[in-house]
Amino acid sequence: MSSRNEIYSLPRGKLARWLTEPGRDTPHEIRVALVGTLFGTLPIFFGGVSNTVAVAWVLARRHGTLPFKCWLIAEILVCAVRLATLTLSRRRAREGKSTPTDFYILLAPLWGATVGYGALVSAMSRDWVSATLAFLSAAAMVGGICFRNFAAPRLVAVMICLSLGPCCIGALLGGEPVLLLSLLQIPFYLFAMSAAARHLNAMLISTMKAERENSHRARHDALTGLLNRDGLFSAAGPTSATPLKAGMTVFFVDLDGFKLVNDAHGHKAGDMLLVQVASRLRMLASAGAWVARMGGDEFVIVEPQVDRPPRDWASLVTEAIERPFELAPGLLVKVGASVGFTTMAADDLDVDQVLRRADLAMYAVKREKAPGEPVAAAERPA
Fold it and tell me: Where on the tree of life does the source sit, at the highest rank (predicted)?
């Protein structure tokens, strides 16, 4: 599995996309994670590379003919290019740059083809020892192919066909009756390992979806779908991809009269009110803003850059919430809102401190309000 800070590009070419297609409708971030697994498990990669190169070298020394020398050269070249591409891809992924994913994926079937070619020339040499060693090497690779690439079942099937398929041809043309048994073994092996790859792929996708859903539930409010407190701290914290920074404005919103609605009409009506308030806040917020429910009837909006003075923007929030809410047929209610805000300074690094400042500004609004004359917003000095 790739590291969380290594993001690999999705394949763009038709063939590479077909080879890595998971076979089901999966979210974009899971597709990215699946592609990332193809660049991991380095011990299996080096084990496979060392095995195929060693077998090709031994048999090239044993026979010394052109077909075996070509096999050894092809193994070394393909493995060297794969290793170089893998190293480059991992470095670029850590740096947040695009990776040569298409090229790396297409090198995998090419490597399978070199393994299959070695098995074929070994069988055609009519050297029973060489054929057995080459066939055993090709079969040993299948396990690594499956467990290293099961995030892409089609890639697994193609690689197995290219590495073991030539064994069947070699068994037919090699003149060794014992090897004919591979005509029964290899198709079954191909089917079994391809099915195993599909099964493991399905399990991996299900696990990733469950983790994604659990993460979403942990960071979002179940009632409104907004970020919750933990989700806001995670999104705006210093370790996030887009942390709070100077110039952002944090608005703290508290409903006025929510308890009266809850007491008079019940919790179901109160929940419906909170859902509709969340919807109006979402509509007011910009595309890049964070909107969160902090608990109860308190909300926070973090705007990267407001298009008007913050006090005017806070007034818009107040006006939006003061419009009547229809909680059920014939049931209209009105509530108010107290909105406090603070603008981030260059030295504001503590999310909790910034929220506390906006919260204090909101309570200042509440204290200043007179019956029938709601104050739209107050700013707490930094």
Answer: Bacteria
Count Cβ atoms within 10 A of the Cβ of residue 210 and give its class: 0-12 exposed, 13-18 middle, 19 or more buried: exposed
Cα torsion 166, 172, 176, 178 to 10°: value is 80
What distance in Å separates the CA atoms of residue 99 and residue 87, rounded to the nearest whole number?
A: 10
From the CB of residue 330, how many other CB atoms can be counted at a distance below 10 Å? 6
pLDDT in tens, 38-54: 887 677 778 778 889 99
Smallest Cα–Cα separation from 233: which of 340, 350, 363?
Answer: 350
Residue 107 has pLDDT above 80, yes or no: yes
Mind listing the pLDDT tens digit for each residue in 121-143?
A: 998 888 888 888 988 888 888 77
> Which CATH architecture fits 229-379?
2-Layer Sandwich (3.30)
| Residue pointed to by tokens 């210093």 | 238
Burial environment of residue 51 by CB neighbours within 10 A (0 to 12, 13 to 18, 19 or more):
middle
Q: In Å, how far are 256, 275, 283, 298, 350 from 334, measured between CA atoms?
A: 9, 14, 19, 17, 35
pTM of the model: 0.65
Q: Where are the domains of the chain?
A: 14-218, 229-379
Backbone angles phi, psi at 257, to 5 degrees: 95, 5
